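Hi support team,

I submitted a single chain yesterday and got back a structure, but I'm not sure I'm reading the token output correctly. Could someone confirm the output below corresponds to the sequence I sent? I've pasted both exactly as they appear in my results page.

Thanks,
R.
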Amino acid sequence: MAAGKERKYLVSVHGGHSGQYCCHAQDTLDEVVQAYARYGFNWVVISEHIPPQTDAFLYPDEIEAGLDSKAMYQRFAAYLDHCRRLQRQFLDMKILVAMETETCGNYLSWITRLRSEFCPDLVVGAVHHVDDIAFDYGPEQYRQAVDKCGGLEKLYCRYFDLQHAMIEGLKPQVVAHFDLIRIFDPGYSKTISAEPVRRRWLRNLELVADLGLVLDYNVSSLRKGAAEPYPTMPICRRARELGIIMAPGDDSHSVATVGVGIKRGIKLLEKAGFGDSWKNPPLIDEVIENRGPGQPVITGSERKFL
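Hi R., thanks for writing in. Yes, this is the structure output for that exact sequence:
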């Protein structure tokens, strides 16, 4: 994204991963946040994946980096400390400190514990695992998930069932990349419209609407060559009918990917009839009004691995 004279009201409801705290990202957190400020973002949700509860749920790149679950926890704690400092430093751009969920193992109790300890401004609710397989890590893992579920349509159904349980159990303020399950399915438009699948995502949207949550209009797929962001347009249309607010998220993983696709995403939202509701969703407005460090984050020698 190049800085230019024309600056729309830029926001990202899901972004800001950095190589400092995420093995599949690049650059430092300072550099990533500075890029958002340089491009004139009004507010941005900086998010990082929660640490795994046990070593069994480490990603291959984390194992390769020599990390274990204890080191991941300490790194996540450092991310929260660092992000709070940046929040106090950048006064012209509102920074919201968030954590992105995982749905593996006994995740509900683990995330509840992390949420209570670290008091993030927002929880970004995401599903990256189906039956403890990280389906979005690569095509091979995706095929494993398909095989374990007994077929592609059943994988979609299982994904949306897990997503419903996550939303209901955690009530995250933001629901990320709603239909990420289509990531390695070139025929996703057909799969997403299959009745058992459609019934489930309709149910999930109704829950999002009932809880007043924000949907992440995740444009990261655009920079990877996809035809449209997450969620796909049929889901967007139903979300609009239900009065759900969607806000664009770049899901950036480096300085080079900060803001990429955001302006296109904004145009697509406007074209889909969402108006400018993405500018300041009431839920985000409330967090910005009340944002602050919350309860003190445990630091230094006081921090113990849970």
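A quick pointer for reading it: The longest strand covers residues 41-49. Let us know if anything else looks off.

Best,
Support desk
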